[in-house]
C-alpha cells in the first residue's frame, strides 16, 4: 500500500512539520541513550552481544499437541495462521496478541477456556506464520481491524468473544467502535483505547508520556531491531518476567519459544511497523483529530472486562479508572502483582477474573 497522498492529509502543514520535529527529535534522543547503554553493556561483557543465535528447530513446547491444532484462514488473498483448541461447535473465543508476541502468549487461557469455548489464537499481521507486508502503512489500525473481521468470517462465525492484549487491545477497542454487533462480550488487558491513551499523554498528573519512551525509539529503523535482538533477545526474559526473577508460568522453554519465533527470517521488523504506522498517521492526520474520532460514550456496546497488571512499566494505571468512567457496561480488575504481560505473568488470577465475568 502506498503512503497517503497529500490530498488525503487531514492535518495542516504546520502540524505535520511541528509533529515531525517533536517525534523524531525524541526518537533521536532516545536512540542516543539506548546506543550508549548497549555500548556500555558490551564493554563490560566478555561475550559478543550485538547479534542472536540462529535457531532452526522449534523448542518442544511449540510442538506440544495439547496446545491445539494449527490452521490457516484466507483473508483478502492472504493466509493468516492460528491455533485452535476445543470443540468447533461451541462459541468462538478469539485471542488477539500484542507486541512482541504471537499466538503462544495465550497458552494459559486456551487451556483453561477450551472446555467451554472454541478458543482460537491468531498470529496477527506481521507476526509468526501470518503475512508480513513490507510497507509501513499496511499496519494501520483500520487494516488490522479488518483482519480480525475477515478471520472471524473465514472461521464461519458472525459473533464471538473478543480477548485482546497490548496492541491486541488497541485493535480490539477499534473493532468495538466499528463492529460492536459482532461481539458477545469482550476482555481487554493492559491497553487503553486511543482516547484515554491520548488523555494520559497530555495529562500533567500522568507518567504516560515518559513511560512511552520506547515508542519513539521504535521509529528508528535498524536500531529498534538491534535493541530487541541485543544479547540474543535478552529483552524477552526481562519483558515476560518483569519484576520477578522466575515464575512457574514463564519457563525457560517459553522464553526459548519467543527467541525461536522472532529469529526466523523476516520476523523482526514487521512488529515495529505497528508503532511506525501509528506515529505517521498521527503526523499526517493530527493528534487531536484522531482522539475526537475515538468516541465511545454514545455507542451501545456489549459487556466488557478490563484487566490490568499493576506492575506495568509501559501503561499508567490511571487508565483503569478513566476507562471505567468513560465506557458503559465495563467491569475492571487490577491484578496487583501482575506486569504488562499479565495473562502470562499471573494466569490463575486472570483466568479466574475472566471465568467470573463470563458466567
From TrEMBL:
This is Epoxide hydrolase 4-like. Keywords: Hydrolase, Membrane, Transmembrane, Transmembrane helix. Belongs to the AB hydrolase superfamily. Epoxide hydrolase family. PANTHER family: EPOXIDE HYDROLASE. InterPro entries: AB_hydrolase_1, AB_hydrolase_fold, Epox_hydrolase-like. GO terms for molecular function: epoxide hydrolase activity. The gene is LOC117647046. Residues 91-347 form the AB hydrolase-1 domain. The chain crosses the membrane at residues 12-40.
Amino acid at each position: 500500500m502506498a503512503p497517503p497522498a497529500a490530498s488525503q492529509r487531514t492535518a495542516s502543514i504546520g502540524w505535520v512539520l511541528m509533529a515531525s520535529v517533536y517525534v523524531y527529535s525524541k526518537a533521536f534522543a532516545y536512540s542516543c541513550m539506548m546506543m550508549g547503554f548497549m555500548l556500555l553493556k558490551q564493554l563490560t561483557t566478555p561475550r559478543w552481544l550485538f547479534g542472536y543465535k540462529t535457531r532452526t528447530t522449534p523448542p518442544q513446547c511449540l510442538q506440544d499437541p495439547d496446545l491445539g491444532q494449527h490452521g490457516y484462514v484466507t483473508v483478502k488473498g492472504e493466509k493468516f495462521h492460528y491455533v485452535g483448541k476445543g470443540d468447533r461447535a461451541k462459541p468462538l473465543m478469539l485471542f488477539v496478541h500484542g507486541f512482541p508476541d504471537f499466538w503462544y502468549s495465550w497458552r494459559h487461557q486456551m487451556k483453561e477456556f477450551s472446555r467451554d469455548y472454541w478458543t482460537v489464537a491468531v498470529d496477527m499481521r506481521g507476526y509468526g506464520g501470518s503475512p508480513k507486508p513490507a510497507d509501513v502503512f499496511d499496519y494501520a489500525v483500520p487494516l488490522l481491524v479488518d483482519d480480525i473481521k475477515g478471520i472471524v468470517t473465514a472461521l464461519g462465525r458472525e459473533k464471538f468473544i473478543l480477548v485482546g492484549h497490548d496492541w491486541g487491545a488497541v485493535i480490539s477497542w477499534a473493532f468495538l467502535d466499528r463492529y460492536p454487533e459482532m461481539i458477545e462480550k469482550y476482555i481487554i488487558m493492559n491497553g487503553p483505547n486511543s482516547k484515554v491513551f491520548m488523555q494520559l499523554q497530555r495529562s500533567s498528573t500522568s507518567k504516560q508520556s515518559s513511560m512511552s519512551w520506547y515508542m519513539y525509539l521504535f521509529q528508528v529503523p535498524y536500531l529498534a531491531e538491534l535493541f530487541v535482538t541485543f544479547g540474543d533477545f535478552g529483552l524477552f526474559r526481562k519483558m515476560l518476567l518483569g519484576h520477578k526473577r522466575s515464575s512457574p508460568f514463564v519457563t525457560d522453554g517459553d522464553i526459548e519459544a519467543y527467541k525461536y519465533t522472532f529469529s526466523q527470517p523476516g520476523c523482526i521488523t514487521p512488529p515495529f511497523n505497528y508503532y511506525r504506522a501509528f506515529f505517521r498517521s498521527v503526523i499526517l492526520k493530527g493528534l487531536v483529530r484522531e482522539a475526537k474520532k475515538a468516541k465511545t460514550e454514545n455507542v451501545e456496546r456489549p459487556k466488557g472486562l478490563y484487566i490490568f497488571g499493576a506492575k506495568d512499566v509501559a501503561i499508567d494505571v490511571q487508565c483503569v479508572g478513566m476507562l471505567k468512567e468513560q465506557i458503559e457496561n465495563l467491569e475492571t480488575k487490577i491484578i496487583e502483582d501482575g506486569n504488562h504481560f499479565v495473562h502470562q505473568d499471573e494466569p490463575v488470577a486472570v483466568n479466574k477474573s475472566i471465568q467470573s465475568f463470563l458466567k
